[in-house]
Amino acid sequence: MSARTILIIEDEMHMRRFLGTLFEMAGFESLLARNGEEGIKAARTRKPGIILLDMMMPRQGGLVMYRQLKAEPDLAAIPVVVLSGVPRDTALHALPMIAAIDGVPLPEPEAYLEKPPKPDELVPLIERIMLERDAARAGNNPLPAP
């Protein structure tokens, strides 16, 4: 797993490029995918340090991809931040229903943000989540929230 690699899964080209550039300027390697199909393939081959996931996309949406990520042992520990135009409560309401169908609990993503993103909040949030993940792996207490 590459610690400073972010997989950005976003169907809107301008938003995808904006986010890729934003994170590259912050010192990340940005991997870009247009939908959940491309995203799951990239996650399997590259094992990013974190995933930024849109919910509403053609071909395969974010919710289906999120379920796949959390079901695969090699990918389940990758933190996921949702960035979507769908309100948080609406999107997260579906998680228990999907869990009931599969019979497997589906955890909430590490964070859920509504579009449009605020760069001065998004980058620090991603960095904090990654630091918390690294601290948890090392057996240290997670960092306090800002």
Can you put this structure into words, describing what you see?
The chain has 146 residues and is of the alpha/beta class. It contains 5 helices and 5 strands. It has helices spanning 13-25, 36-46, 62-71, 88-102, 119-138; strands at residues 2-9, 29-33, 48-53, 80-84, 111-114. Strand 1 (2-9), helix 1 and strand 2 form a beta-alpha-beta unit. The protein is globular and about 40 Å long.
What can be said about this structure in brief?
The chain is of the alpha/beta class.
How would you sum up the major sheet?
5 strands, parallel
Spatial strand arrangement across the major sheet: 2-1-3-4-5
Distance from N terminus to C terminus (CA atoms, Å) equals: 26 Å
- Total number of beta strands: 5
Outline type: globular
Our count of helices gives: 5
Structural class: alpha/beta
Strand content: 15-25%
Tags for this entry?
single chain, 5 helices, alpha/beta, 5-stranded parallel β-sheet
Layout: helices, strands, pairs:
Elements: E1 2-9, H1 13-25, E2 29-33, H2 36-46, E3 48-53, H3 62-71, E4 80-84, H4 88-102, E5 111-114, H5 119-138
Parallel strand pairs: 1-2, 1-3, 3-4, 4-5
Helix pairs in contact: 2-3
